[in-house]
Design goal:
- With 195 residues, this protein is an alpha+beta fold.
- The chain has two domains: 116 residues, Creatine Amidinohydrolase; 72 residues, no CATH class.
- The protein is 35% helix and 18% strand.
- The protein contains four helices and six strands; from the N terminus they run ααββββααββ.
- Strands 1, 2, 3 and 4 form a four-stranded antiparallel β-sheet that branches. A two-stranded antiparallel ribbon has the order 5-6.
- Helix 1 packs antiparallel against helix 2 and helix 3 packs antiparallel against helix 4.
- The chain is globular.
- 26% of the residues are buried.
Length: 195
């Protein structure tokens, strides 16, 4: 693990402003998600809103360590079993799919980043259960994010809940901190050992 940068109250307020835009983008897009819209259309809506709020879409043009292919869109859109980092396309969403949208915004030099999953029209009971259990796992993990605990206390709580409900966690990708850059320490996996 690299260095964790503690934020001042002023920096936290700036991060909160970027996070507010992320949250509002997700709420805005929810109203447009229906069968027949493309993720490319959703990307255009998101980018327009981010810019109208004085923000910059942090994903657009992003590449890991400044090398390699640059991400071409303002949001990541992952359908059904695509885990994350899906590229918006002209393909129309279909009834019964799950769409995960990841949004990153920079404003005043600080990043906000968040994702949410949405049902496209009416979804199966199996997919509805998956969405409910993953949302529950989020809140179970958040309850462990408290003074005196370790990052892996969060990770273990998520893993235990998810696996006890018959699902598995992705081990190749992790959550992360934000601040002046999109990916800051600490990494936050969805699996681990308490303590």
């Amino acid at each position: 693990m690299g260095k964790i940068f503690l934020k001042t109250p002023r920096e936290i307020a700036l991060m909160r402003e970027s996070g507010r835009i992320v949250s509002e983008v997700l709420r805005l897009l929810e109203g447009f998600i229906k069968p027949g819209i493309s993720t490319m259309e959703l990307d255009a809506i998101a980018e327009d809103f981010i810019l109208s709020q004085g923000g910059i879409p942090v994903f657009k043009g992003y590449s890991q360590n400044g090398r390699g292919k640059k991400f071409p869109a303002s949001i990541c859109t992952s359908v059904d079993d695509a885990v994350v980092h899906g590229i918006p396309s002209p393909v129309k969403l279909q009834e019964g799919e799950i769409l995960s949208i990841d949004v990153g915004v920079t404003k005043n030099g600080y990043v906000g980043d968040g994702a949410w999953s949405f049902a496209v029209g009416k979804i199966s009971e199996e997919k509805l259960r998956l969405m409910r259990k993953t949302e529950e796992a989020l809140y179970i993990g958040l309850r462990e994010a408290k003074f005196g605990n370790h990052v892996h206390d969060i990770s273990a709580a998520v893993q235990e809940f998810v696996e006890s409900n018959g699902y598995s966690v992705v081990r190749e990708l992790v959550g992360h901190g934000v601040g002046k850059s999109l990916h800051e320490d600490p990494p936050v996996p969805n699996f681990g050992k308490r303590g």
